[in-house]
Write a structure and sequence with these properties.
Elements lengths: L6 H6 L8 H26 L15 H35 L6 H26 L13 H20 L14
């Protein structure tokens, strides 16, 4: 089977495998928000490896720490909102679908979204804007962060593409 999009699939808003494009995008948004939330909660607030703005405001002063923790809190709220938007869009896509959405493509899209956030974090927050560095090591871990991000994206793509075959036969075709 060719993985190219057909004209019929293009018009219906579904991929060739029958999964609505809106469901895949929504799942990716959920993954993006989830990864950002885990990043800020685990790395910033629990492990205290760095904070969102620790590259701009020092963590060693009380005012710098307050600014960083406030930024982490606002960022947490933003990630919850992003996850909620993705979840709402995914729910809406599920409700519009004629049959239940297949789990593997949705989970694969969540993994792609998760890796996309990590890649964004490494390239934009760490390198381009210099907002913070993992473990405050001046970019030492950025290549590793990028590789792990790409592995998540690759794993998501693999899970999406290797979904369980589903039969779309009607009972009369089995006779």
């Amino acid at each position: 089977m060719s993985h190219r999009r057909t004209a019929e699939a293009e018009q219906s808003g579904t991929m060739d495998d029958g999964v609505p494009r809106r469901a895949l995008v929504a799942a990716g948004i959920v993954g993006f928000g989830f990864s950002g939330l885990i990043d800020v909660l685990l790395l910033h607030l629990v492990l205290k490896w760095h904070h969102l703005l620790s590259g701009l405001y020092p963590q060693t002063t009380m005012s710098g720490l307050r600014t960083n923790v406030l930024a982490d809190g606002v960022f947490s709220i933003a990630m919850v909102v992003i996850m909620g938007i993705g979840g709402g869009l995914l729910w809406k896509a599920e409700r519009r679908a004629a049959s239940p959405l297949p789990v593997r493509p949705i989970f694969g899209s969540i993994l792609v979204g998760l890796g996309a956030f990590d890649l964004y974090d490494a390239l934009v927050d760490h390198i381009l804007l210099g907002l913070h560095q993992p473990l405050s090591q001046g970019g030492t871990y950025n290549p590793h962060w990028i590789v792990v991000s790409l592995l998540f994206i690759g794993a998501g793509w693999y899970v999406y593409r290797t979904r369980s075959p589903e039969t779309h036969e009607s009972p009369s075709e089995n006779v």
